[in-house]
Structure formats: C-alpha cells, structure tokens
Amino acid sequence: MLKVIRADDSTMTAPEPGLRRQVMATSEPMMLVRHRMEAGWVGAAHSHPHEQLIYILSGEIALTVDGETYTLLAGDSVMVPGDVVHQASAAVASEVLDVFTPAREDYR
Questions:
Q1: Virtual CA dihedral for 107, 24, 103, 1, nearest 10 degrees?
Q2: DSSP readout, 45-99?
Q3: Sequence-distant (≥ 6) Cβ neighbours of residue 73 within 8 angstroms
Q4: How many H helices and E strands in the chain?
Q5: DSSP H or E segment with residue 99
Q6: How many Å apart are CA 11 and CA 81, to the nearest integer?
Q7: Please, which pLDDT band fits residue 14 given cuts at 50, 70 and 90?
Q8: What is the average pLDDT across 21-26?
Q9: Half-sphere exposure of residue 104, counting CA atoms within 13 Å on the CB side?
Q10: pLDDT exceeding 90 applies to what percent of the chain?
Q11: Looking at residue 108, what is its pLDDT?
Q12: Could you tell me whether strands 86-90 and 41-42 are parallel, antiparallel, or unpaired per DSSP bridges?
C-alpha cells in the first residue's frame, strides 16, 4: 500500500524566517521536500553530506555554489553534490522541490 502525501500548507514548518518546509515522500535512501520562500529570503551558506536535487516550481532563486551564483527559474533543475558549500536566496516568492539522498534525519 502506498502512502500518499498531499501538498498541504497547513503541515509546513518554519525552520527560519521567510522559509516554509513540508517533508513529503521519504524513505531511507531519499527524501522529497517542498520549500516555499518569501520574497527577500536569504538562506545561510551551509553544506551537508547529502546530494541535493533542486527543481524550481515557481518564482526564481539565486543559488551560490563554491562562490559562483546561478539564477534558477521555474522549470530549471540542478544537482548540488554533498559536502559542497551552497547558499540560496529568493528575490521573489518562490517554491522548490528538493530531493535529498540519503534522507535527512534533521528534517524528520
């Protein structure tokens, strides 16, 4: 039997100002996460051991990886390798899907 996870804004958490998160489908080797960023949100530069696939559902984000900044628009995708310092920001309200492998224990 499959467990269907509905996109439900009421279940989103607010891990930091301007960012909302919903953990969606997950298993031990991977995790799907929906993020909504408010206009003007700037995330902290960070790294983690997980590989991260990013798909932009709406809006536009700036993603800085190893000092180089990329503008990602709705429909764009990118893969950030594990243990690489990266930082995202959103000049406009944006929504993205992230896939992490392995699953992030700190998001559960």
A1: 130
A2: PB--SSEEEEEEEESEEEEEETTEEEEEETT-EEEEPTT--EEEEESS-EEEEEE
A3: 56, 60
A4: 0, 10
A5: strand 94-101
A6: 28
A7: very high
A8: 97
A9: 19
A10: 96
A11: 83
A12: antiparallel
- Is the whole-model pTM more than 0.85? yes
User: Position 11: which residue type?
Assistant: T
Band of residue 1 on the pLDDT scale cut at 50, 70, 90: confident
Are 62 and 42 spatial neighbours (Cβ–Cβ below 8 Å)? no
Contacts of 28 (CB under 8 A, 6+ apart): 102, 103
Which 3 state secondary structure label does DSSP give 105?
helix
pLDDT tens-place string over residues 37-75: 999 999 999 999 999 999 999 999 999 998 999 999 999
Could you give the dihedral angle defined by the CA atoms of residues 84, 11, 2 and 99, in that order, rounded to the nearest 10 degrees?
-10
